[in-house]
Amino acid sequence: MITENEYAHWLFNVPGLGNKSIDKLLCSGMNCKEIYEADSKEFKGILTPARIKSLENSKRSWDFELEAKKLKDKGISFIPRIDKRFPEKLKNIPDPPFAIYVKGNLPDPKKPSVAIIGARLCSDYGRQMARTFGRGLALAGVQVISGMARGIDGISQKAALEAGGTSYGIVGCGVDYIYPPENKPIYDQLCINGGVISEYPPGTEPKANFFPMRNRIISGLADIVLVIEAREKSGTQITVDTALEQGREVLAVPGRVTDRLSDGCNLLISQGAGVAISVSDVLERLSHFASVQKGEIEAKDCSNTSSGNDEFSYENLFEKEPEKTIDEEILDLIDIIPVSASNIIEGLSSRDIDISIPQLMTKLMDLTYKGLILQEGVYFRKKV
After folding, report:
1. What's the CA dihedral at 282, 179, 170, 152 to 10 degrees?
2. C-beta separation of 137 from 169 below 8 A
3. How far is CA 164 from the centre of its chain?
């Protein structure tokens, strides 16, 4: 029996049909199966004659069993918007993809995500910053999103994976196509500890015009977009523009005013972007983002009190507020040997204490300011 997802896969691969044409068809009231079974006369006024002809030709040539086997053999998942697995963050962005292909996994919607982007031809400073932020965010439990490209993208993702974190590469080709070739080790690790995602069918080779389109997915899957090294006029600016259009917050790592590779970041900061000097700056913004989201949820909850559904609660959507003794619990887990935030989270979890990464970082900062602990990069230890 052919599933609705398989019909969606066929529709997504009709030559000449893009996201907008597919949306027009679906908005006419038909589902993907009904579109496949419908007479071509029903598409008049919705599609051009050329697209109607392409649709009819595709019906005769498409082999559902063979196409399903191709995906299965390559370990690739096809996830259309009608699938409950489709990321909620992508549904409401301008020009959302009708579907995506995934090799590996999708980002966990319950965990924070940061997109790290920047120059392909980066400096030693840029490489150092990419490693620092990629590793630090991963150790703090943040998912790193990027484009698996040369330079800042690949370096930050490699650092995140080496730190034991998860990362997701959004590519401008098929998810079975490794580009650039030298990033194969990163690609292999992404498929295990994260995922490779694309809106282009398997076997699609990279093209220059594909990359600007994929940038809206990079920013769309992230809570925050972090820019590390970018020229004033570069492809990075396209991702920044889409991020701002999507309502995402943009942070930039500053650089020397004499360094052309930092012109883009410095310009963003002068225009109002947040400054990211350390991993803590990003985590602080994630904490603010989570608190705003929680406030919006609680506001909606209060406005719906007259619905009569008094038993419904939003408390499971966010981590519970830490107990008053949480500072003592955290101090018990910190010794003179430096430990990371992820180690502390694991220790608290073993004590049945639920706390989010942003909440923990706030507590750690408070303890640092009080002089009870010291911070060394992304690690913390007791003050001797």
Report:
1. 10
2. no
3. 17
The span from the CA of 240 to the CA of 11, in Å, is 31
Q: CB count, 10 Å around CB of 258?
A: 7
Q: Which of 319, 141, 144, 284 is nearest to 228 (CA)?
A: 144
Name the one residue in this structure whose structure tokens are 């990464």.
Answer: 357
The helix (run of H) or strand (run of E) holding residue 375 is strand 373-376
- As a whole number of angstroms, the distance between CA 138 and CA 15 comes to 40
- In Å, what is the CA distance from 20 to each residue of 23, 58, 110, 251? 5, 18, 30, 31
Report yes or no: 142 and 236 within 8 Å, Cβ to Cβ.
no
Encoded amino acid at 22, one letter: I
Q: What are phi and psi of 79, to 5 degrees?
A: -125, 100
Closest by Cα among 185, 137, 187, 145 to 163: 137
| Burial class of residue 351 in the structure, from the number of CB atoms within 10 Å of its CB (0-12 exposed, 13-18 middle, 19+ buried) | exposed
For residue range 299-318, list pLDDT tens digits in order. Answer: 444 444 333 333 323 233 23
Q: What is the DSSP letter of 384?
A: -
pTM to 2 decimal places: 0.74
3-state secondary structure 270-328: HCCCEECCCHHHHHHHHHHHHHHHHHHHHHHHHHCHHHCCCCCCCHHHCCCCCCCCHHH
Provide the pairing of β-strand 167-170 with 143-146. parallel
Are β-strands 373-376 and 379-382 bridged in parallel, bridged antiparallel, or unpaired? antiparallel
Round the CA-based radius of gyration of the chain to a whole number and report it.
Answer: 23
The stretches in the chain having pLDDT less than 70 are: 288-324, 384
> What is the bridge-based pairing of β-strands 113-118 and 224-228?
parallel
- The neighbouring-strand residues paired with 252 are 227, 275
Contact 51, 21 (CB under 8 A): yes
Q: How far, CA to CA in Å, does 223 sit from each of 165, 244, 293?
A: 17, 11, 11
